[in-house]
Amino acid sequence: MELTDEAIARIERDDKAVNAICVPDFDRARAAAHRADQARARGEDRPLLGIPVTVKESYNIAGLPTTWGMPPHRNHVPAEDAVQVSRLKAAGAVVLGKTNVPLGLQDIQSFNEIYGTTNNPWDHGRTSGGSSGGSAAALACGFGALSIGSDLAGSLRTPAHFCGVYAHKPTLGLAANRGMVPPSEPALPVDPDLAVVGPMARSARDLALLLDVMAGPDPLTFGVAHQLKLPPARHERLSDFRVLVLDEHPLIPTGAAVREGVHRVADALVDGGARVERHSPLLPDLTEAARLYTQLLISGSVARFPIESPEQLRTRVAGLSADDQSLDATRLRARVFSHHDWMAANSRRELHRHGWRQLFAEFDAVVCPITPTPAFPHDHNPNPLERRIDIDGVDYPYFDQLAWAGLATMPGLPATAIPAGRSPEGLPVGVQLIGPMFEDRTPLRLAELLEQRIGGFRTPR
Q1: Is the overall model pTM greater than 0.90, yes or no?
Q2: For the domain 238-454, what is the CATH superfamily, name and number?
Q3: Among residues 450, 453, 458, which one has the least CA distance to residue 233?
Q4: Topology given in CATH for the domain delimited by 2-222
Q5: Could you list the active site residues?
Q6: How far is CA 135 from the centre of its chain?
Q7: Is the pLDDT of residue 313 over 80?
């Protein structure tokens, strides 16, 4: 009960400035904490018994609104918990409430007309990231010990990087996501392409603990609850790891602050005796990977959330030069993808997956940026295509910064976001540790070993 009371007091004291908790549920949280105390007194032992947690707004929680920040759905209240909320509760967690998201989960920031803007705890003039920005900000502020979010375009990893906490994007299909669904759609046991649900925490060990609670397929699919048995980490000691370190992308520069974060991690790996390489001919082509990711992401997004008429889009695509292979042009062409186009991109993805399998026969993890910069100032231009991202004084298209996050997402690989120090302005900088498919425990263990060497979460000052 004390942990829950302390978390609630902190939210009531500090959240006005940050706006991370958009739907508090304190009465039910106190009742759950009281039940947890009674269970402990009876000698029960569950993984999260009595631990206060938060949940991204996009998950269904019976009796609370699930809007995805969409004003037409502000009164949508589901009657059933999402499968991951059920797993949290079964593990004994105390749900404090829901955390803020962007409109439709489709931004690298977290603001919407219903709940307003979530600020970065380190600098209130900057974003906390998106779309799990409320969860990352809540963790950084001490509003609960754990949170659950989702990731399609870095939505777990980017907020963790911006707020200085930990997150893990699981292997595609590892954790059931029923009930993490737009309010206009039924909660069915369907795995949408690219998208995963995953844990966020303030330490690598807590991240692994929460993943154990979340992992496993949907019981509606298997008929009974089925716990997936993940293989152990490849190594327990840092000196046994073989790591490929990347800090340059052919389509977007890496800012100095993030590059320095990658170097800090690389130096810690070398000091710990790991085998570190900076180049490998086994690495799949990063330019094609970014374009494939963009094609799969945008074609899938437009299918669910159409914005313009197909005729308008085809006219705009026809106006593109055949030589224009920029990510901006790739995004526009993907908005009119046919099923044939998608199948061709999916076939190319399988070739990339095969390439990653070959790479992970020689390496255990890949260290690389999550985005090119630390948290950027709030930018609420209603047309995201007009926004720009400033990288060391030069402007680039806003959504080009997704290239690094997409590196793990497109083939469905697990990726752990870890703190890697501070920028010269004092902002958190994170990196991601990409691991082999269904070997999630390998990047998680590497995260734990690096935490011991370079430090981890720090309280915002």
Answers
A1: yes
A2: Amidase signature (AS) domain (3.90.1300.10)
A3: 450
A4: Amidase signature (AS) enzymes (3.90.1300)
A5: 56, 131, 155
A6: 10
A7: no
